[in-house]
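Please predict the structure of the following assembly.
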Amino acid sequence: MTGRFIVVDGPSGVGKTTTTALLADALAAEGWQVYPTKEPTRTKLGETARYGTDDYHGLTLACLVAADRYHHLEAEVRPALAAGMIVLCDRYLATSLVLQRLDGVDPAFIWDINRFADRPDLTVILTGDPARSRERAAARGIHSRFHRGGPEAGRREMELYVRVSEELSRAGFAVHVHHVGEQSPDAVATALLGPVRALLSAGSDGQTPTGSAARSSES
Ligand SMILES: Nc1ncnc2c1ncn2[C@@H]1O[C@H](COP(=O)(O)OP(=O)(O)O)[C@@H](O)[C@H]1O
Ligand SMILES: Cc1cn([C@H]2C[C@H](O)[C@@H](COP(=O)(O)OP(=O)(O)O)O2)c(=O)[nH]c1=O
């Protein structure tokens, strides 16, 4: 039996990294084997994308992040899934559909170059007040041109995430949109445990959290 592939997406500063870490801890405490990861990856390729947004634009950046995604899938995600783990990925396809579109890339091209990227079992999209998310991202440190721009840029980014969540649903992805609002990080993680547990119990074939050996031995 393979594991489950869950991605958490949304605008910079909305709380993806914080929530993903809390969710990973909560699932691990329940006995699940969790593989937390993120895109762009920590590889040379991923770091070039993360810190290279002033040098690379449009089609180039779209291809760079897609290449990093394919390498991530091959080197980390698929092996972890094959071992029966829950892969929790901070940023995935929705980011490309939003940021590359903001960068002037035709959505059809973004879909096309991501055609062979695995479909997650669950795509979580976090939304929140755009101004607050921008402020948090700025306070943490700006390392991407997508972090710049004031509240108006934040509003456009947030609106596109909502549109992209609908686009992904129409394309057959399982999408869960969660509005962070005034919730604490713990409250957000707790709220997400609901849909995640539903996913884990659906089609679990009687798997239990600690049944990793059983899970990894099934195919
Ligand atoms: N629900 C929340 N309420 C208040 N602060 C938060 C919340 N979620 C995250 N933060 C803070 O906001 C900042 C950005 O969070 P982070 O998880 O790095 O966002 P992202 O990964 O979406 O860019 C961090 O300093 C984090 O501690
Ligand atoms: C995954 C991904 C990242 N990127 C680039 C631009 C983003 O600003 C940057 C993400 O860097 P990251 O450090 O993850 O930003 P944040 O802390 O805001 O979550 O990588 C894309 O352009 N498209 C993508 O699909």
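The domain at 4-217 is CATH 3.40.50.300 (Rossmann fold). Residues 10, 12-18, 136-137, 140, 180, 183-185, 188 surround adenosine-5'-diphosphate (ligand 1) (CB under 6 Å).
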